[in-house]
Write a structure and sequence with these properties.
The complex is a heterotrimer. Chain A is an alpha+beta fold. Chain A has eight helices and 17 strands. Chain A folds into two domains: 226 residues, P-loop containing nucleotide triphosphate hydrolases (Rossmann fold); 72 residues, OB fold (Dihydrolipoamide Acetyltransferase, E2P), CATH 2.40.50. Chain A has a six-stranded mixed beta sheet, with helices on both faces. In chain A, strands 13-17-14-15-16 form a five-stranded antiparallel beta sheet, with no helix packed on it. By secondary structure, chain B is mainly alpha-helical. Chain B has a domain of 158 residues: MetI-like fold. Chain B contains eleven helices and no strands. In chain B, helix 4 packs across helix 6 and helix 6 packs across helix 8. The longest helix of chain B is centred in the first third of the chain and has 34 residues. Chain B is globular. Chain C has two domains: 162 residues, MetI-like (MetI-like fold); 39 residues. By secondary structure, chain C is mainly alpha-helical. The longest helix of chain C has 33 residues. The model of chain C has no long low-confidence stretch (mean pLDDT 88). The chains are: A alpha+beta, B mainly alpha, C mainly alpha. At the A-B interface, strand 6 of A face helix 7 and helix 8 of B.
Chain lengths: 312, 254, 274
């Protein structure tokens, strides 16, 4: 295992009584990276996270952390920590109590300082004596983070931590999480079904579907060079014209080109989405300036650049 | 709405039905005559109670039994509820359920049969210890039901979080789950205490001659006919238990 | 899983000792013969069970069944409106619920004695009726089946009200609004919507009331007198005065069989307590 790989999954599979959640997945996660597991619900990404944390045992395959196989270890003996989807803050403890919780086993004379440091990092200093019920959703999420970070794990596992926040907050927290990760240089393994989140935050993305690993790569690679139909469709929208893939933003409506008739124009604030029907009956979409207006049935022409084509 | 008024009126009647008998007992415990005709205020019956050494001794016995049995049943029952919540055991659940539905008289006589059979081999007799054992036996199911009900609402991810942060299974139980169970454990203890202190049927069968409990003495008095001293005892008990209930409600809310 | 097994072990042992072993012994005893001085003797027999069909004992069993059924039915009829009231009382729910549960926390023995005090010949009811001139001689209100049923209803009403309340409280108010919208009057809504949805609560309450009523001992002893002998009294008698342990054992098991049979017939998935 290369020294820059902190976490490795070797042909890991997990089968439950009713279905196979993870099928033969192998991954290498570089140290210090913001690595995302992206896929629709039920694709197995949370199961993988739980196997790394120690709450599920792989049916076959191995999990290696820092050069050691951790398959048989219980969660409390693994140097990974989880930020749970519902945060799982202990309601009977204060913020301070929650963050200190895991330190009982990691004795250090600088405990108090560590806790205060971490609280400062997540901008919660001054709220250490509050209870979880007195905090907002965003604050609770930061406590969950602080509680895990203070233990300095080899990998921090995050299970859809932004899904409970409202959209405005989500955008803001995305940036904060990214900054935090860079500052701490901790390896983040981030699970999400939101492709915009994954694209904007990650160094690398692993796309999963129905238990299988579809593709691993940087955000640009995954978006611009998808290797399967699923990945192409999952990351952003995709038009398929005669078997060739073209993104809506690459399609321009011009005076010359292939013919189509407009079926719908949706105004989305900063741009319009124009749906058109081709001669063969397929529907494709294009993006147009916000001032665009067409009537239904209007005939238009469109074209795209060769370089923007995606061939599978 | 008419139905609402009718319902409220009915409820008033129902509450009267539930509470008035005890009020009547209390009122007549202060009556200077032993008949159900008011003849003047008197504390003579309460004095009679204070002078009755049999009553005092049996009350002490009842308290000792109830406190011991409650303590044991609450601890063991809480642990059992947690164990069952982690992974079900149909035979243990089955026997606890059986314990709840077996009529008291059957529990009593079967325990008597058990003890008599055991005493052939061990030189023991019926006494406080057999009563305490019996009380723990029938209280366990109540404790398990109450604690298990609260556990069913517990968010499992809290335990996973604790494990994730380095706590062992026992530490997780001790530092995370047990604090959550606090109110249920208190409620279960109160239930076990009440069930124990009030038990007549089972206790009378397994108590033997030396250990009289308060219900046994009360029963003997009631059997002999109505006695206003019994009204006094009843009122004291109801009052005492009522205070206990209010106190524990206060504690629970705190 | 070691922790979980350690947690279960003490309770498992206690259940085996205080529940299973005694019942096993009783089962064995029921097939033996009574000893000369009490206890049991060797010759095994099924006579104890055949004796149950003797009209004397059959009468007692039937009497116990109908008294328990009457008490349960009354508890249901009287308890349902009360549970409905509490469920609809909004903010004061807990107070009203507490007022129902409070008597339950006081001694069952004392509450039974209270009715002795009230119903006896020189008790409140008779004294008041006599002083009002309604009756000349005291009414024999005590020491009969009616008194027993009254005592049972008084004792077990909370057991019926609680499960009923629990089901009613969870009732979605929008269902009632939908019924009204579709033209149902209050009584219709009660019969066609509320009652069917309450069925689990009714079942739970009925079982929690009927089974203890069937095996009652104290209530029939104190309020029923020598004329109202029920199964519970009969069993107690066999193990004390009559010294016929094997018959008492058979009787106990018959009682349990009835209770468990009823429980199984009413059970539904997902309504378990344990």
């Amino acid at each position: 295992m290369a020294s820059e790989t902190v976490l490795e999954l070797r042909q890991v599979s997990k089968a439950f009584a009713t279905h196979r959640a993870v099928v033969d997945v192998s991954l290498e996660i570089p140290r210090g990276a913001f690595f995302s597991l992206l896929g629709p619900s039920g694709c197995g990404k949370t199961t993988i996270l739980r196997m790394i944390a120690g709450f599920e045992t792989p049916t076959s395959g191995e999990v290696w952390l820092n050069g050691d196989c951790i398959n048989g270890l219980p969660p409390y003996q693994r140097n990974v920590n989880t930020v749970f989807q519902g945060y799982a803050l202990f309601p009977h403890l204060t913020v301070q109590g929650n963050v200190e919780f895991g330190l009982r086993h990691k004795k250090g004379s600088d405990d108090i300082n560590r806790v205060n440091d971490v609280l400062k990092q997540v901008r919660l200093e001054g709220k250490s004596s509050r209870r979880p019920s007195e905090l907002s959703g965003g604050e609770r999420q930061r406590v969950a983070l602080a509680r895990a970070i203070v233990l300095q794990p080899d990998v921090l596992l995050l299970d859809e931590p932004l899904s409970a926040l409202d959209p405005q907050l989500r955008k803001q927290v995305r940036g904060e999480l990214r900054d935090l990760q860079r500052r701490l240089s901790v390896t983040f393994l981030f699970v999400t079904h939101d492709q915009e989140e994954a694209l904007s935050m990650s160094d690398q993305i692993a796309v999963m579907n129905a238990g299988l690993l579809e593709q691993v790569g940087t955000p640009r690679e995954i978006y611009a060079q998808p290797r399967s139909r699923f990945v192409a469709d999952f990351l952003g929208a995709m038009n398929w014209i005669d078997g060739i893939g073209v993104r809506p933003e690459a399609v321009s409506i011009t005076s010359q080109g292939r013919k189509a008739s407009v079926t719908d124009v949706s105004y989305l604030g900063s741009f319009c989405r124009v749906e058109m029907k081709l001669e063969g009956g397929e529907i494709i979409a294009a993006l147009a300036p916000p001032g665009t207006s067409y009537t239904a049935g209007q005939a238009v022409c469109f074209t795209w650049n060769r370089e923007d084509e995606i061939h599978l | 709405m008419k139905t609402r008024r009718g319902l409220a009126l009915y409820a008033l009647g129902a509450y009267a039905f539930l509470h008035v008998p005890l009020l009547i007992l209390a009122v007549f415990s202060f009556n200077s005559s032993r008949f159900a005709v008011w003849q003047g205020f008197s504390l003579q019956w309460y004095r009679a109670v204070a002078d009755d050494s049999n009553l005092i001794e049996s009350s002490v016995n009842s308290l000792i039994i109830a406190i011991t049995a409650t303590a044991v049943a609450t601890v063991l029952g809480t642990l059992a509820a947690y164990g069952l919540w982690k992974r079900a055991s149909s035979w243990l659940s089955g026997s606890l359920y059986l314990s709840l539905v077996t009529p008291e008289i059957v529990t009593g006589v079967s325990l008597l049969a058990l003890f008599q059979w055991i005493f052939r081999f061990l030189h023991l007799r019926l006494g406080m210890h057999t009563v305490i054992l019996a009380h723990v036996g029938f209280s366990l199911a109540y404790v398990v039901v109450v604690v298990l009900a609260r556990l069913r609402n517990f968010d499992r991810s809290l335990e996973e979080a604790a494990l994730d942060l380095g706590a062992t299974e026992f530490e997780t139980f001790w530092r995370v789950t047990l604090p959550y169970l606090g109110p249920a454990i208190a409620a279960a203890a109160m239930l076990a205490f009440t069930v124990s202190i009030d038990d007549y049927v089972i206790t009378s069968l397994v108590a033997g001659v030396d250990s009289q409990t308060l219900p046994m003495v009360i029963y003997a008095m009631a059997r002999r006919g109505v006695n206003p001293a019994l009204n006094a005892v009843s009122t004291l008990i109801v009052f005492g238990l009522g205070v206990l209930v209010l106190l524990s409600e206060r504690l629970r809310r705190a | 899983m070691k922790l979980r097994n350690a947690f279960l072990a003490p309770t498992a042992i206690l259940m085996a000792v205080t529940m299973l072993a005694p019942l096993a012994i009783i089962l064995v005893y029921s097939f033996l013969t009574r000893g000369a001085y009490g206890g049991v003797e060797a010759p095994s027999t099924i006579e104890n069970y055949t004796r149950l069909w003797d009209p004397v004992y059959a009468t007692i069993i039937i009497r116990s069944l109908w008294i328990a059924a009457a008490a349960t039915a009354l508890c249901l009829i009287l308890g349902f409106p009360l549970a409905l009231f509490i469920a609809r009382s909004g903010a004061r729910k807990n107070l009203y619920l507490g007022l129902v549960i409070l008597p339950f926390w006081t001694s069952f023995l004392i509450r039974t004695y209270a009715w002795m005090f009230i119903l006896r010949d020189t008790g409140i009811v008779n004294s008041v009726l006599q002083s009002l001139g309604v009756i000349r001689e005291p009414l024999p209100l005590l020491y009969n089946s009616g008194a027993v049923i009254l005592g049972l209803v008084y004792g077990f009403l909370p057991f019926m009200v609680l499960p009923l309340y629990a089901t009613l409280e969870r009732l979605d108010p929008s269902l009632l609004e939908a019924a009204a919208d579709l033209g149902a009057r209050p009584w219709d809504t009660l019969v066609r919507v509320i009652l069917p949805l309450c069925a689990p609560g009714i079942r739970a309450g009925a079982i929690l009331t009927f089974v203890p009523c069937l095996g009652t001992y104290l209530t029939s002893d104190l309020l029923g007198g020598s004329k109202t002998v029920l199964i519970g009294n009969l069993v107690q008698n066999q193990f004390t005065a009559s010294r016929d342990w094997p018959f008492g054992a058979a009787l106990s098991l018959a009682l349990m069989a009835i209770a468990i049979g009823l429980l199984f017939s009413v059970r539904r998935r997902g309504e378990e307590l344990l």
